[in-house]
Design goal:
By secondary structure, the chain is an alpha/beta fold. The chain contains ten helices and 13 strands. The strands form two sheets. It has a nine-stranded mixed sheet, sandwiched between helices. Strands 3-2-6-7 form a four-stranded mixed sheet. Strand 11 and strand 12 form a beta hairpin. Its cofactor is Mg(2+). Belongs to the carbohydrate kinase PfkB family. Ribokinase subfamily.
Length: 317
C-alpha cells in the first residue's frame, strides 16, 4: 500500500443527528432507566468517518450523503464543512434526515437505535465523478445495492475500495471481490465470515487482500499477504466509546491514502480512536491531526514490545 496513491478520499454513506442521553447503565429489555444529561450531536457512520479522515487523518476528503429537507440536516452539514469535508448532498423531500437514539452508560458503553430516514434514498447513480479520488470508503447504513454499485464504479475507475462492514450483514462474493480493505470488529467478523470457530479461521475465509479487525480495548490486527500485524490499544480512561470505531476507520483510510504501510496505518488509527473515547459525542469527540501526532510521539503512552507480544499471542490460533 506504499505505491503512489492519490491522496483524495471519498466517503459514501450515512449521516444522522444523534440524540444522546446519559444514564447509570444501558436499560435491559423491558427496563426503564432514568437518564441525566441529554444532548444532540452530528453522527452517522459515514459522516463520522469522513470527519475523522479529514480532521484526524489529515486527508483531502469528500462525502456523498443523503439528507432530508429539515432542520436536523443543518448541524450535520455544518460539522462536516467545519472539518474541511467537501460535500455532495442528495436531498429527499419525502424522508427526514437520519437519526440515532443513543443511551450512554457511566461505564462508557452504549446502546444505539438508528432511524435511517434519508440515508435509504442514496443510490448508485448518485456517486460523483471519481477524478482525483484514490480511495472510496463505504459502510452498511445505506442500501446494500447502492454500496455494491459504488464499489463497482470505484473498481472500474481504478479507485481502491475500503468497506467497514457495519452494521453487520452478510456480504456477497461479488462485493468482497471488489474490496481492497475490509474493516470489521469481532462481532461483525462472525457475521461476514459465517460464524467461524476462531479469529484465524474467520480471517482465512475472507477473500479480501487486507482484512482489519478491531478488538476493542485490546487493540486491532491486520491480515495482509498471509501475515498478521497487531496493534495494541493506547491506554486511556474512556468516557464515551461512540464513534471510536468510525474514527479508526477514517484515520486508517486517510493513512493509506497518504501511502502509509499497514503497520503505520494501524498505529495512527489506534491513537485517534483512543483519543475519541475520552470525549462525549460522535464527531465532537474526533481529535485533530496535531493531537494524534502528539499521542504518537509520547513514548510513555505508546504500547511497548511486551504489549505487542501479548496481543500477538492472544490472536494466535
Amino acid at each position: 500500500m506504499t505505491d503512489a496513491v492519490r491522496p483524495m478520499v471519498l466517503v459514501a454513506g450515512s449521516a444522522n443527528l444523534d440524540f444522546v442521553v446519559r444514564a447509570a447503565h444501558v436499560p435491559a429489555p423491558g427496563e426503564t432507566v432514568l437518564g441525566r444529561d441529554f444532548s444532540t450531536f452530528p453522527g452517522g457512520k459515514g459522516a463520522n468517518q469522513a470527519v475523522a479522515c479529514a480532521r484526524a487523518g489529515g486527508a483531502q476528503t469528500q462525502m456523498l450523503l443523503a439528507l432530508g429537507q429539515d432542520e436536523a440536516a443543518r448541524p450535520i452539514e455544518a460539522s462536516l464543512r467545519d472539518a474541511g469535508v467537501v460535500l455532495h448532498v442528495m436531498r429527499d423531500a419525502a424522508l427526514p434526515t437520519g437519526t440515532a437514539f443513543i443511551c450512554l452508560s457511566d461505564s462508557a458503553e452504549n446502546a444505539i437505535t438508528v432511524a435511517p430516514g434519508a440515508n435509504m434514498a442514496l443510490r448508485g447513480e448518485h456517486l460523483p465523478a471519481l477524478d482525483g479520488i484514490g480511495w472510496l470508503l463505504l459502510q452498511l447504513e445505506t442500501p446494500m445495492a447502492s454500496v455494491l454499485a459504488h464499489a463497482r464504479a470505484a473498481r472500474a475507475a481504478g479507485v481502491k475500495v475500503a468497506l467497514n462492514a457495519a452494521p453487520a450483514r452478510a456480504l456477497s462474493g461479488e462485493l468482497l471481490s471488489l474490496l481492497d480493505v475490509l474493516i470489521v470488529n469481532e462481532g461483525e467478523l462472525q457475521v461476514v465470515a459465517d460464524n467461524p470457530p476462531d479469529l484465524a479461521t474467520g480471517l482465512a475465509r475472507l477473500p479480501v487482500p487486507c482484512v482489519i479487525v478491531t478488538l476493542g480495548a485490546r487493540g486491532s490486527l491486520a491480515r495482509m499477504a498471509g501475515q498478521i500485524r497487531v496493534q495494541p490499544a493506547f491506554g486511556v480512561e474512556p468516557l464515551d466509546t461512540t464513534a471510536a470505531g468510525d474514527t479508526f476507520c477514517g484515520v486508517l483510510v486517510a493513512a493509506f491514502a497518504h501511502g502509509a504501510s499497514v503497520v503505520e496505518a494501524l498505529r495512527q488509527a489506534s491513537a485517534a480512536s483512543a483519543l475519541a473515547c475520552t470525549r462525549l459525542g460522535a464527531q465532537s469527540s474526533i481529535p485533530t491531526l496535531a493531537e494524534v501526532e502528539a499521542l504518537l510521539s509520547d513514548t510513555s503512552r505508546t504500547p511497548d514490545a511486551d504489549a505487542h507480544a501479548a496481543l500477538a499471542a492472544w490472536c494466535a490460533p
